[in-house]
């Protein structure tokens, strides 16, 4: 299992290496005809092949690491205490990001990576941090009927499913519907 946990120390050679590798993977993802391999990442990034294997272990872990970084940077989860406002802001931004060029290629690479990674790696590197962020949002709003995992099921699952099918949800048309679904579930005493 790779030593890298998805969290990097700020600055220094480690951060420069990670940045170079992520930039290389983003470039390769923008070229759908190019296969994303450890050799291609090493060549494109200028990072030695053995460093890639020592730090990440395989190409799937690099793709998962990039995906975690991208999700964290592009879609931070607000937690102001106003559940409707926080969800609306987050969901709109998420749906807009899933319509950006190159997202389909990243999703395909992420699915391939998830298929190769162990179940523990998938949860630890991708899902668990988002569950924790969702739980913070719910805690700030003092919502106890649902938890962070349920928000993954109600928001991320449909958003990513439709994006993977090549029909990403429309941020202007679908945000309110997803938010209303979460609010209905959060209020349902059953």
UniProtKB/TrEMBL annotation:
<feature type="DNA-binding region" description="H-T-H motif">
    <location>
        <begin position="37"/>
        <end position="56"/>
    </location>
</feature>
<dbReference type="InterPro" id="IPR001647">
    <property type="entry name" value="HTH_TetR"/>
</dbReference>
<dbReference type="InterPro" id="IPR009057">
    <property type="entry name" value="Homeodomain-like_sf"/>
</dbReference>
<keyword id="KW-0804">Transcription</keyword>
<dbReference type="InterPro" id="IPR050109">
    <property type="entry name" value="HTH-type_TetR-like_transc_reg"/>
</dbReference>
<dbReference type="InterPro" id="IPR036271">
    <property type="entry name" value="Tet_transcr_reg_TetR-rel_C_sf"/>
</dbReference>
<keyword id="KW-0805">Transcription regulation</keyword>
<dbReference type="Pfam" id="PF16859">
    <property type="entry name" value="TetR_C_11"/>
</dbReference>
<dbReference type="InterPro" id="IPR011075">
    <property type="entry name" value="TetR_C"/>
</dbReference>
<protein>
    <submittedName>
        <fullName>TetR family transcriptional regulator</fullName>
    </submittedName>
</protein>
<feature type="domain" description="HTH tetR-type">
    <location>
        <begin position="15"/>
        <end position="74"/>
    </location>
</feature>
<keyword id="KW-0238">DNA-binding</keyword>
